[in-house]
Amino acid sequence: MFFMITDSSSQWNEDGIHKITGTKYDELRFDIEGNNRRGFNQDGIHKITNQKWDEEDYDYRLFHKDTGINKHTRTKCADDGYDIDGYDKYGFSKDGFTKDGFNQYELDKDGYNKDGFNKDTGFNKHTQSNFGKDGYGLDGYDVDGYDKDGHNQDGFNKDTGFNKHTQSNFGKDGYDVDGYSKNGFNKDGYNKDGYQKDGYNKDGFNKNKLYKKTGKKYNDCGFDIDRLHEKTGKKYNEFGFDIDGNPEDGSVFTLG
Question: What does the domain layout of the chain look like in residue ranges?
């Protein structure tokens, strides 16, 4: 007669009955030898065939090794909705990833997309830069700010200046690729020559090189349209300051 020897600390008695469940199987449904009712251990190996398949060529989840059909459901998916490889009908595993390693947002477990870009930083793991192998960033623009069709983010073509959004030479804001409106002025109110509608530039000089306030060649501080000082002939006056009040030596004045 065979007598089973069991350790006093074991969860099994000498008859192979589990002390907690009162059956031949523990809480995880494995017997004293570590096999389930169908003879598979926790690694999915069958105790008789010593393979992933039982004598009828079904694995521990009841998938046939040749057809991939589940014995219970008679489909490619088991009762839990996953196939022999562990993927549902949409191609995702229980962890939410496809066979290629991407989730429903087309990102891998580290947050990179199929082109190698990180969704948060825009960094490309293949090129170790912010641009992909094709030279374009996560936003689809190259280092010069143009997409594959030659348009910038405002929709202007780099060669023609034509805007794809408005189908004209002007953007949605009414300004062209150089930043000028149909009337020829930019957002600051200056034309390409640097003059406002009243005919004066930002320094207060007109095309005749006369200062608006004095009607003369020089402004109140002695600078002309070329920003040169009448006494020194340079862009700095005799005290070392330019037309904007910046010192020649580059020093910065602070109050205190």
Answer: 144-192, 198-256
Alpha-carbon dihedral sign for residues 124, 129, 135, 136: positive
Query: Which pair of structure tokens corresponds to residue 53?
Result: 């398949």
Token pair for residue 7? Answer: 């350790």
Instruction: Give the up-direction half-sphere exposure of residue 51: CA atoms within 13 A in the CB hemisphere.
Output: 9
Q: How far apart are CA 46 and CA 42, in angstroms?
A: 10
Contacts of 18 (CB under 8 A, 6+ apart): 11, 12, 24, 25, 26, 32
pTM for this entry: 0.58
Q: What is the pLDDT at residue 9?
A: 53
Span 173-177, average pLDDT: 97
Provide long-range contacts, Cβ within 8 A and 24+ apart, for 243-251. Answer: 243/203, 243/219
Q: pLDDT tens, 115-134?
A: 999 999 999 999 999 999 99
- Rounded to whole angstroms, the Cα distance separating 46 from 25 reads 16
SS3 156: strand
The pLDDT tens digits of the residues spanning 35-88 come to 999 999 999 999 999 999 999 999 999 999 999 999 999 999 999 999 999 999
The angle formed by the CA atoms of residues 51, 53 and 55, to the nearest 5 degrees, is 105
